[in-house]
Amino acid sequence: MSHFEYKDGRLHVENVPLARIAEQAGTPSYVYSLAAIREAYAGYVSGFGDRTHLVCYSVKANGNLAVLRALANEGAGFDVVSGGELHRVLAAGGDPGKVVFSGVGKQPWEIRMALEAGILMFNVESPAELDTIDCVGREMNTRAPVALRVNPDVDPKTHPYISTGLKTSKFGIPLERCFEDYQRAATMKGLEIVGADCHIGSQLTTTEPFVEAVGRMTRFVDRLADSGIEIRLLDMGGGLGICYQDETPPSTDTYAAVLGDALGGRDLTLIVEPGRSIVGNAGCLVTRVLYHKGNNQKNFIVVDAAMNDLARPSLYSAFHEILAESEATQSVVADVVGPVCESGDFFAKERAVANVGPGGLLVVMSAGAYGFAMASNYNARTKPAEVLVDGDVFHIVRERETLEQLIQGETIPESLG
Ligand code: LLP
Description:
- This protein is 29% helix and 26% strand.
- By secondary structure, the protein is an alpha/beta fold.
- It has 2 domains: 4-32 and 280-406, Lyase, Ornithine Decarboxylase, Chain A, domain 1 (Beta Barrel), CATH 2.40.37; 34-277, Alanine racemase (TIM Barrel, Alpha-Beta Barrel), CATH 3.20.20.10.
- Strand 14 and strand 15 (299-303) form a beta hairpin.
- Helix 2 (34-48) packs parallel to helix 9 (252-263), helix 5 packs across helix 6 and helix 8 packs parallel to helix 9 (252-263).
- The radius of gyration is 23 Å and the shape is globular.
- The N and C termini lie far apart (61 Å).
- The structure holds ligand LLP.
- Ligand LLP binds at residues 58, 61, 79, 102, 162, 164, 199, 202-203, 237-240, 273-277, 312, 316, 369-370.
């Protein structure tokens, strides 16, 4: 069931009219449906059924504290890639014992912080990082729980910027040499080998790459076991796609079945790190139309949100559906653009969109993942507000940034007068 629907001609998020939210929170604002987030998470849990598993929500998709708390309440673990993300999880009340720490450039302070918090495991991305983690572990008189991130060389057939499991990518350790690194890790005193990990990419819309990756991983885990290295956690990363336009990604049931079947009777806890598929379709970006303008070639609808608020269209030529807040709006072929001084600042190009006039609201859909999380202050624009809808009520879960906050922390040296 969609939680973004027209009721009496006005777009609602759950039972709240978006116009009311825009009135109170201002625009642009990100608006999330709590029910949609919970439903997406529940899809994974029911998909895995009786199989021992842990869903570690990937914080990078949307790290708002309220979103994290909601997922923690459902029992989720978290996938973090920085000390900052770990800080968010802890501040939101997430269980550190369910946190996996990925990312190619972990620094000693981050490793220390994670060990102090008592995370579940580090997904180690290189032999050099293994040495650093071992060193911090020994310094702290502990054994850091690790998995090595295997690069299984599987083509996820997605956007090149978000393909991560190919031989040419910077992520993980090539499958061919990973065995050797596991043997070395087994001798290190600051480490404990607990798992194996991979992640092949994001916005995957077919099952084949997952099938291939999990097959390679289970064979690899068997080979490790034969050599005396028993692992208990298999982390298959995130990446399940969502429908932005007309994609038909596998359901969580299918996805869970594919992974579960490949594991067979092995005594492994399956970990997944979904981000987009939990929050992507649970959020939208509501924006107000500022101006219409045209030249002999084109129509432009200028809105108050821009590429600094939602970078995906500019960065990946990503498609996001754009709806009018008011259903009965005629359409016009136009570019929907923001105020930022770049031609790349657009949400739609030459698209039939609702012809909403100045002062009216447009809604950029499927913006819950990698929306606010990738927002910047480019053009000295303050970051948008974030709103969480829960049934009949809504909460502003992040205030719009103020102009004062925008310059906070900057100083002018006295010598400049
Ligand atoms: N685990 C790891 C190690 C990852 O690198 C990622 C995403 C995930 C999990 C979560 O993947 P998901 O389930 O969300 O596909 N900014 C891009 C997406 C970048 C994804 C980076 N890694 C976008 O807006 O499409």
